[in-house]
Specification:
Oligomer: heterodimer
Strand content of chain A: under 5%
Radius of gyration of chain A: 16 Å
Low-confidence stretches of chain B: 75-81, 104-113
CATH class of the largest domain in chain A: Mainly Alpha
CATH architecture of the largest domain in chain A: Orthogonal Bundle
Number of domains of chain A: 2
Low-confidence stretches of chain A: none
Order of helices and strands of chain A: HHHHHHHH
Order of helices and strands of chain B: HHHHHHHEEEEEEEE
Largest sheet of chain B: 4 strands, antiparallel
Shape of chain A: globular
Shape of chain B: elongated
Helix content of chain A: 55-70%
Radius of gyration of chain B: 23 Å
Number of strands of chain B: 8
Number of domains of chain B: 2
Number of helices of chain A: 8
Largest sheet of chain A: none
C-alpha cells in the first residue's frame, strides 16, 4: 500500500480535490479509492493492466459519486461506475501517462478544444454533470451538447495518439 | 440498441455523463462482453483517465499515507487493537449469548439463522476496512456505531433508558440532505444494554440516530433522538 500510495497518492488526491473542492472530503475519498484498489487487486492483471489509469478512474468516480450524492442531483450509479472501472478495461492500456510530458500534452490537447468543447468537458469531468444537466446549464439543445462532448473527446484522443474511435 | 447506435455515447459513458436509455444499453452490452462496446468504452476510458494529467497538483496531508498503510497492515497497531478488540468481543459475546436484535425484514422466516451466522455477520462489519467506528457518550447513554458502507451497521450501547410499555428503540440513517431513513427497531436487555445489527449497504448517510418510538416503529422520528452521531 505504501508503494501504491507513493506512486499515485498525490495525483489521486489532486483529482479528487479538483472535483469535491474540500480537503477533508478528499482525504476520505482517497482512502476509499486506495482501499477499493487494494481489495480488488486480485482481479487486476499486473503484467498487462494499466494501474495508474485504473486507480485514477476509481478516484474520479468516487469524487463524482460523492458530489452527486451530496447534491442529490442524480441517483447513485454504482453499477455504472463498477462497469467503467472494471479492471478488464485497463488491459494493455497506455500506462506511462502521468509524467511531465503527459501533463504538457494533455494541456496542449485541451487547449485545442473550442470554447464550448472545453466547457462541456469541464462540466462533465470536474462537476459530474450529465449531458441533460449540461444542456440546461448552457441553454443548449441536448443534441448540441452530445455533439460537443463527442467532438471534444475525438480531438483529445487524436492529440493523445490514442487512435480513432467513437 | 445496436453497437453502431451506441458508439457515439462511449465517451459520455466514460465521463459518467451518459443517461438512459443509452447508459443502460451500454451497460448491458458490457455485461455480455460485446467486443465492439468493450473496445469502444476502453478507448474512451483511456482518454478520460488521461485527463487527470491536467489537474492542478495538490499535496495531500502527510497523515493520510500513515492512515492508509495502517489500515491494510497485517499486524494491527496497539492502538487499533486496543480500540477494537473489547468492542468486537462485546459484540460477539452479545450475539452468541444474548440473542442480538436483527430487524424483522432481515430475519430468516424459519428462524434457522444460527449464532454462527450472526457471529459472522457482525465480524464482517467489524472487519471491513472501510468501517467507521463512531463512539458516543453522555452522562447517560454510552456506546458505539460501527458503520460499514458495504456491510451494514452494528450498534452497541449501555445505560439505555427504561421504556414504557408499548415503546421501542428505533435506528435511523440520516442522509446529508433529506429525511431520516428508518433502520429497524430493537429492545434493550434487562441491564439496559443493547446490541443491534442492521445488515446491508449503508450509502449516502451522514449521521446515525436512535430514538424512542411506538412499538413497531415509525416512518419518521416522533421524538427527539436520544443518540445522534455524525459519521
Amino acid at each position: 500500500m505504501a508503494d501504491l500510495y507513493d506512486r499515485f497518492g498525490r495525483l489521486a488526491y489532486s483529482v479528487i480535490l479538483s472535483v469535491v473542492r474540500d480537503p477533508s472530503t478528499a482525504e476520505d475519498l482517497v482512502q476509499e479509492t486506495f482501499l477499493r484498489v487494494w481489495n480488488r487487486a486480485h482481479a487486476f492483471e499486473a503484467g498487462r493492466g494499466a494501474l495508474g489509469p485504473w486507480l485514477l478512474t476509481i478516484a474520479r468516480n468516487r469524487a463524482i459519486d460523492h458530489i452527486r450524492s451530496v447534491g442529490s442531483r442524480m441517483q447513485k450509479n454504482s453499477y455504472e461506475f463498477d462497469a467503467s472501472e472494471h479492471p478488464s478495461l485497463f488491459v494493455d492500456m497506455e500506462r506511462d501517462v502521468f509524467n511531465t510530458d503527459h501533463a504538457r500534452i494533455i494541456r496542449k490537447a485541451l487547449a485545442k478544444l473550442t470554447e464550448n468543447q472545453q466547457k462541456v468537458i469541464e462540466l462533465a469531468y470536474y462537476q459530474g454533470l450529465s449531458q441533460t444537466e449540461m444542456a440546461e446549464q448552457m441553454g443548449q439543445p441536448l443534441g448540441t451538447i452530445k455533439t460537443w462532448v463527442r467532438a471534444a473527446l475525438k480531438v483529445l484522443r487524436g492529440e493523445l495518439g490514442q487512435g480513432t474511435g467513437a | 440498441m445496436t453497437c453502431e447506435e451506441l458508439r457515439h455515447e462511449y465517451g459520455a459513458f466514460a465521463l459518467a455523463s451518459a443517461e438512459d436509455p443509452e447508459r443502460a444499453e451500454i451497460l448491458a452490452h458490457l455485461h455480455r462482453h460485446c467486443p465492439e462496446c468493450v473496445a469502444g468504452v476502453r478507448s474512451a476510458v483511456a482518454t478520460v483517465a488521461a485527463m487527470s494529467g491536467a489537474v492542478k497538483i495538490a499535496d495531500p496531508p502527510k497523515h493520510l499515507r500513515k492512515r492508509l498503510v495502517a489500515m491494510v497492515s497485517p499486524v494491527p497497531s496497539r492502538r487499533r487493537f486496543a480500540v477494537w478488540f473489547p468492542w468486537a468481543v462485546a459484540a460477539v459475546l452479545a450475539l452468541v449469548l444474548l440473542s442480538v436484535s436483527i430487524p424483522a425484514r432481515f430475519r430468516n422466516p424459519n428462524n434457522t439463522a444460527t449464532a454462527q451466522a450472526r457471529f459472522d455477520e457482525v465480524l464482517s462489519i467489524l472487519k471491513d476496512p472501510v468501517t467507521k467506528d463512531v463512539a458516543f457518550g453522555d452522562p447517560t447513554v454510552r456506546g458505539r456505531f460501527f458503520v460499514s458502507s458495504n456491510k451494514g451497521v452494528v450498534f452497541i450501547a449501555a445505560h439505555l433508558p427504561k421504556l414504557d410499555a408499548g415503546r421501542t428503540f428505533e435506528m435511523w440513517l440520516i442522509p446529508a440532505s433529506g429525511k431520516p431513513v428508518p433502520a429497524g427497531t430493537f429492545d434493550a436487555l434487562g441491564d439496559s444494554t443493547a446490541v443491534y445489527v442492521r445488515p446491508g449497504p449503508v450509502v449516502n448517510v451522514a449521521a446515525m440516530a436512535i430514538s424512542v418510538e411506538p412499538a413497531g416503529g415509525s416512518a419518521q422520528p416522533t421524538t427527539t433522538p436520544i443518540v445522534v452521531s455524525k459519521l
